[in-house]
Design goal:
By secondary structure, the chain is mainly alpha-helical. The chain has nine helices and no strands.
């Protein structure tokens, strides 16, 4: 989404995206039409289409909007970190992502819809994959701030990223609470980051 169509720069766009997310959550992909978004947002269809020409443009805008909110929340929590202790910072990074996923059951419904759409829509699939690339880069950037060997960061990201995403769906069925899972993942991540090279 370009700056002109950024939710932060225009309350109409934010209104369209919020109504789109609500429709997607409550009615799924088939209930999300440009016309219904316009009706729910109290706008004309042409007004909605001025900002989002197609349903794919709207879906990509909704993905970006949702993930920007998640990233802003993550940044705010990580910025408050004042410890030089690697383990404490890794635990904090993990717990922020786990507790975030545990608390967003409504957003998880929306995210499942995005993935369902992506299975049938290459453009949305590519957009979601680019989000995950950015998410992996963001996690790497946080870990790179710590005194760890950068060669071992990809292994840590390879563990954490899929776990965070899966945890948001499976958390309530696990026999461990989020704190125990965060401690377990911290230990595994520390092991990966302190790994020894095979020559």
């Amino acid at each position: 989404m370009n700056k002109k169509h950024s939710p932060s720069s225009n309350p109409k766009i934010q209104q369209i995206l919020n109504h789109g997310l609500t429709l997607l959550r409550d009615h799924g992909d088939h209930g999300l039409t440009m016309r219904q978004v316009a009706v729910n947002a109290g706008m004309s269809l042409s007004n909605v289409q001025y900002y989002f020409r197609t349903k794919n443009d709207l879906l990509k805008g909704m993905v970006d909007y949702y993930f920007q909110k998640c990233e802003n929340e993550f940044d705010a929590k990580m910025d408050s970190s004042e410890s030089d202790d690697v383990r404490k910072n890794i635990y904090k990074l993990i717990s922020i992502n786990l507790f975030h996923g545990e608390a967003l059951t409504e957003m998880c419904k929306i995210f499942r819809e995005f993935w369902a759409i992506a299975t049938r829509n290459k453009e949305i699939n590519d957009h979601l994959l680019s989000y995950y690339s950015r998410y992996a880069e963001r996690l790497s950037e946080e870990i790179e701030l710590l005194p760890v060997d950068p060669d071992f960061i990809p292994q840590a990201i390879g563990l954490l990223l899929p776990y965070f995403e899966g945890y948001s769906i499976t958390a309530k069925s696990l026999p461990l609470n989020a704190e125990k899972v965060a401690n377990m993942l911290t230990e595994i991540t520390m092991f990966l980051l302190e790994g020894t090279r095979e020559d």
